[in-house]
Structures are given as structure tokens and as C-alpha cells.
Design a protein that fits this description.
This protein is mainly α and 306 residues long. It has 13 helices and 2 strands.
Length: 306
């Protein structure tokens, strides 16, 4: 079955299949964007930026940019209800907590390892969807989670890890991200993604700015290179947060999270190129397993109507 039918010599693609395919592409795009954050975080530390300082600035700049776009675009402020905007404020707290754990772990752990640990979140999404909302976990989903898990272990090969606070923060990040995805899907449900994304980022930025002020780290970037890192970091959530919301609306959180398999692969490639981390054969095999997860999880075309 292809999800298309021929009528009068024309090939027609079913709207449902197109919708699911677009949702899958949005998930892959968002994951690829998020995959750059680990390397950007390491670069930020090298240029004198604190974790809360970087997160505050990037979230506030991203919120301003996305808010400006939402003023003129479809799915912007005019289509956002008060309920969606209020719920988005709460989502910003979850986003800030997850990002803060992630970036604090980057202080002492390898960028590719922290990104790989974050990629365990599909398992938490599937489990949370089952426990909280009664969604069935298919054999296909379990197979994709298992394959992705094997890939993550192989990608992490050779990384020296010790039991400390950084590892605990790295392990907490995927749980918080899974909670964010499930909460967003069952509250906002992809409504007004640009406006909702702008409010979510503004809420996260305000919280991180408060923490930065308390820690006396809130200041403008100290150099041109630091400014560049902040601005590039801001572009990531501007594109990825609305894409993530629209993807979940089309294919649901479990599939969206499984298609995030490109995230640790992008992080590993960038870490090797930019940070000089090693790329062994084992890690390459791990990357192949992780990418295989995307093929297993890719939404099947809807069956033809009879």
C-alpha cells in the first residue's frame, strides 16, 4: 500500500499519509537542530558563558524572534487561545529545567555522551504514554526503542564516566524532556505552534534569567564569538520548538521521539569535527543502529480505502 490512489489517470496521495509524512520530517528536522546544542554548550563554556546565562539569553532572543514571526504568520497570536498561552507558560518551566540539567552536565562530561544519554527519552515517552494515557506500546515501537538503546550504548563507548552530580543531571534530563513532550501533547496539542512556542521560550528565558541574576552570572556575552554562539543557539529553539509541536500533533509523542534518532548522531559528528572527540568503529556502528531506529519508527502509509 502506498497511501496513493489513481483516478482518471491522476495519482492522488491521501491527505492522512501526507500529514504523517510531514510530521515525520518535522520530527527529524527538530531533532537535527537539537543535536547541535551539546557542541554549542561546550563552545559557550570555552568563551566564558555560564549555563544559566546562555540559556536565559538564547531563550529570550528566540522568544522575541518567534513572537515577531507569530505576529504575521498563520498559527500565530490570532489563533492562540488564552488557555494555550497559559499552558505554554507552564511548559516553559519544564523546558528550562530540562535544558539546565543538560547544560550543567556538559561542564564535565563529553558532549556526545550527554546527548546520547538524552536520547533515552523515547523509552520514557512510550512508558509515560502507556501509564498516564493508556496508549498501547506496539512491538514495532519496542523494537525501535531496543535498537536505539543499543546504538546509544555503542555511541557512548570509550567515554570515561563516574558516579557524580553531572551524571545524575544527565540522567534527569531525558525524564524531564519526556515529561515536557507528553504534557505538551495532551495540553497544547499543537495549537498555534508559533505563539505557543514563543510563550514557552519566554517563560523558560525568564526563569533562567532569574537564576542567572541570583547566581550573579547575568550579563551580555563578553566577546563577538560568545555573541555568535548565543545567537546561533537561539535559532535552534526558534525552529525546533514549533516543529516539535506540529510533529506531535500529526504523529504523536512516541513516534516523534523515536524519530529523534538523528539527534545523538548529529551531536557525535559535530563533536568529532568541532571538539576533536574520537570516532571509533564501535561508535560508527552505534550511529548506524540509531539511524536504523528512524527507519523502523517511520510512520507507515495509511491503507487504501476499499
Amino acid at each position: 500500500m502506498t497511501g496513493a490512489s489513481e483516478r482518471g489517470g491522476l495519482t492522488l496521495t491521501r491527505p492522512g499519509t501526507e500529514r504523517r509524512g510531514l510530521g515525520a520530517l518535522l520530527a527529524v528536522g527538530a531533532a537535527s537542530a537539537f543535536g547541535t546544542l551539546a557542541v554549542l554548550g561546550k563552545l559557550a563554556y570555552g568563551h566564558g558563558l555560564a549555563a544559566e546565562q546562555l540559556l536565559a539569553l538564547r531563550s529570550l532572543f528566540a522568544a522575541a524572534g518567534l513572537g515577531a514571526i507569530a505576529t504575521f504568520a498563520v498559527g500565530g497570536w490570532r489563533s492562540a487561545s488564552r488557555r494555550v498561552l497559559l499552558l505554554s507558560l507552564g511548559l516553559g518551566v519544564l523546558m528550562a529545567a530540562q535544558a539546565y540539567c543538560f547544560f550543567l552536565a556538559l561542564r564535565t562530561l563529553d558532549a556526545s555522551f550527554v546527548q546520547c544519554v538524552l536520547f533515552t527519552y523515547p523509552a520514557f515517552v512510550a512508558l509515560g504514554a502507556r501509564v498516564a494515557f493508556g496508549q498501547r506500546i506496539s512491538r514495532r515501537t519496542l523494537g525501535a526503542i531496543a535498537l536505539g538503546g543499543i546504538g546509544v550504548v555503542l555511541l557512548s563507548a570509550g567515554t570515561a564516566v563516574r558516579l557524580d552530580a553531572a551524571l545524575g543531571l544527565a540522567l534527569l534530563a531525558p525524564i524531564l524532556f519526556a515529561t515536557y513532550l507528553l504534557t505538551a501533547d495532551h495540553t497544547v496539542r499543537g495549537a498555534a505552534p508559533l505563539a505557543a512556542g514563543a510563550v514557552t521560550l519566554a517563560s523558560a528565558g525568564a526563569l533562567m534569567a532569574t537564576i542567572s541574576v541570583v547566581n550573579r552570572t547575568f550579563a551580555l556575552p563578553p566577546s563577538t564569538d560568545a555573541w555568535a554562539i548565543v545567537l546561533v543557539s537561539a535559532l535552534v529553539p526558534m525552529a525546533a520548538v514549533p516543529a516539535l509541536m506540529m510533529s506531535m500533533k500529526r504523529i504523536g509523542p512516541p513516534t516523534t521521539s523515536l524519530l529523534g534518532t538523528c539527534e545523538p548522531v548529529v551531536a557525535m559528528v559535530l563533536a568529532v569535527i568541532v571538539l576533536g572527540e574520537s570516532a571509533s568503529l564501535v561508535r560508527v556502528v552505534g550511529a548506524a543502529c540509531v539511524l536504523g531506529t528512524a527507519l523502523v519508527a517511520w510512520p507507515k502509509p495509511l491503507p487504501e480505502p476499499r
